[in-house]
Amino acid sequence: MTDIGTALKRAAAFGVLALTVSVGLACGEPESASAATPAVAAETTNAPPPTQAPTPAATPTLRPTPTPTATAPSTPTPTATPPPEPTPTPTPTPEPALADVGINWEPCRPNSAFECAFLKVPADYRDPDAGSLRIALNLHRARLPDQRVGYLLVNPGGPGGSGLELVESIRSGFSAFAPELVERFDIVGFDPRGVKASEPKFECGEPGEQLDLRRSIDRPVDTPEEIAAGEAAAGLCIESMGPVGGLLHTAYVARDMDEIRKALGVEQVSYLGFSYGSAVGVWYATLFPDSVRAMVIDAADNPVDAAADQAERVADALEETAPIAILLERALTACDSPECPIYNDGDPLGYFRQAAQKLHLVNEGASNHPDAAAYGVITPLYAEFLWPVLWEALYRLNEYDDPSILLEVGDFQWEDDGPRVARMPEHVNCLDDWVLHPEQSRETRLADGEVYQAAQDEEFPLLALLGPPLFSACAFYDQFAPEPLEGRLDGGGVPILVIGNHGDPFTPFIESEELMTEQLTNGYLVEVDHGAHGVYPNNSCVNQHVHRALLDGEYPSEQRVTCEREEVRLPF
Question: How far apart are the first and last CA of the chain?
Answer without folding.
Answer: 14
